[in-house]
Design goal:
Layout: H1 8-23, E1 29-31, E2 35-37, H2 45-56, E3 65-67, H3 84-99, E4 124-125, H4 128-136, H5 149-156, E5 158-160, E6 174-177, H6 183-186, H7 191-203, E7 208-211, H8 218-231, E8 238-239, E9 260-263, H9 266-275, E10 286-294, H10 296-306, E11 316-321, H11 323-331, H12 334-341, E12 343-346, E13 363-366, H13 369-379, E14 382-385, H14 388-397
Parallel strand pairs: 2-3, 2-4, 6-7, 6-9, 7-8, 10-11, 10-13, 11-12, 13-14
Antiparallel strand pairs: 1-5
């Protein structure tokens, strides 16, 4: 393949795979079961040129391949206010990855679109939350695949045996003990997101193990991983007693005395939450949830909260989700309840990377630590990190409503 026997596109892809493998010290390549492509989000002509060159040379994926969020919402095009170049080239980029055989899922949460690798299965997934979810929650094995490398792995069906594909790199490098947190905080709706933000900031690119947690469902684990991968570079975490590789702490540690232990306090969590609130007033222009994309369970909960209520006319409420999940929600009558209340669904993209917010929006509430972390820099807005129920109550009232005294910083 490297020598060109399978054509120029495969040779190009293999040069990238081999080069990265050499840099990472890999001794061999391994077959992968699937890929998830982040490169389909338009960042400029370089990415488009690369993809269209591959297409022109006859590139085709050789493993099941899902596609990450793009720069457009093809189902709700009126919501996106992008410039002409981004709109045209963004669509060309999407078309190029579909032409190579990518499945047009257009979601950062492919694990919600029936693409779930098995325990121990090697895959090549890009997008930070997808990576950490695959490794941590599913127990599959993927390294941190970035743009261009992801499609090269999908074309060749191979990846370097390095990084988080290896047993020794999946052991915990830090232990966070949350057993001293007060019960109201430990069972709070926003615990996972705020804790993930705090752990990521302190752990960097390490592998954290968390002890003392109650059992977390998949949506909470998703929120934790997305936050930890944003404030730091976490590609794998172990929620001891919950995630599949960590039935107990000793399963992910070779020597408990050789790693750093951090015992978190109520003040630590409250301070982390405070970092995710940059707004000073109580007026809210918009609410954005679904970073990562909302699951069907989350949309069901949203429908329960908004049923019989109405979003305030001065507030825009955006719920980002994958088109597969939205179709399921529509079939179940869930999306209709949300839309009747004034919720606007965003698919194929996300509000923190694509211009969906209206001009003049200055303050946004979200239940996502990832969104709260990135949006001030990306969009030049002020943010308030809150629970889903607080987001809904705020959106209906037109100003920030908080009912979480246990998170007060004092």
């Amino acid at each position: 393949m490297l020598a060109g026997s399978a054509g120029p596109a495969v040779a190009t892809a293999m040069r990238v795979i081999v080069g990265v493998g050499e840099v990472g010290g890999a001794k061999e390549l391994i077959p992968i079961g699937s890929a998830h492509i982040d490169s389909c989000l338009y960042h400029g002509r370089a990415g488009l040129d690369f993809a269209e060159q591959l297409v022109g040379h006859g590139a085709a994926v050789t493993v099941p391949t899902t596609l990450n969020v793009s720069s457009l919402d093809l189902l709700h095009p009126r919501l996106v206010h992008g410039d002409a170049e981004t709109m045209v080239n963004g669509r060309r980029l999407m078309d190029a990855y579909v032409a190579m055989g990518g499945r047009p899922t257009w979601t950062c949460a492919p694990y919600q679109a029936d693409s779930r690798p098995g325990f121990g299965e090697h895959v090549a997934w890009a997008e930070s939350n997808a990576i950490v979810f695959a490794n941590s929650v599913l127990g599959a094995r993927t390294d941190r695949y970035g743009d261009f490398l992801d499609i090269c792995a999908a074309i060749t069906g191979l990846a370097p045996l390095s990084g988080l594909h290896l047993d020794e790199n999946r052991l915990a490098t830090m232990v966070f003990d949350v057993s001293a947190l007060p019960p109201p905080m430990l069972h709070s709706e926003i615990l996972a997101a705020v804790l993930g933000y705090l752990v990521g900031a302190r752990c960097g690119t390490g592998v954290p193990a968390i002890v003392g947690l109650p059992h977390l469902d998949e949506d909470a684990l998703k929120a934790f991983g997305a936050a930890a991968a944003s404030s730091g570079g976490v590609g794998l975490f172990h929620a001891v007693g919950t995630t599949p590789e960590a039935p107990d702490l000793k399963s992910v540690l070779t020597d408990a005395d050789a790693v750093e232990w951090v015992r978190l306090t109520r003040h630590d969590l409250a301070a982390a939450r405070a970092e995710l609130i940059t707004a000073t007033g109580d007026l809210i222009d918009a609410v954005s949830i679904g970073t990562p994309h909302c699951s069907l369970t989350e949309l069901t909960r949203l429908a329960e909260l908004v049923d019989g209520r109405r979003i305030h006319p001065d507030v825009d409420f955006y719920a980002c989700t994958g088109r597969t999940v939205l179709a399921q929600a529509t079939a179940a009558g869930i999306s209709q309840v949300c839309e009747q209340a004034g919720v606007q669904f965003v698919t194929d993209t996300c509000t923190y990377i694509t211009p969906v917010l209206r001009a003049g929006h200055r303050t946004v509430m979200t239940n996502s630590a990832k969104w709260a972390h990135y949006a001030p820099g990306n969009l030049d807005v002020e943010v308030v990190m809150a629970s889903l129920s607080e987001c809904v109550t705020t959106a209906c009232n037109g100003k920030a409503v908080r009912h979480d005294p246990d998170w007060a910083l004092n």
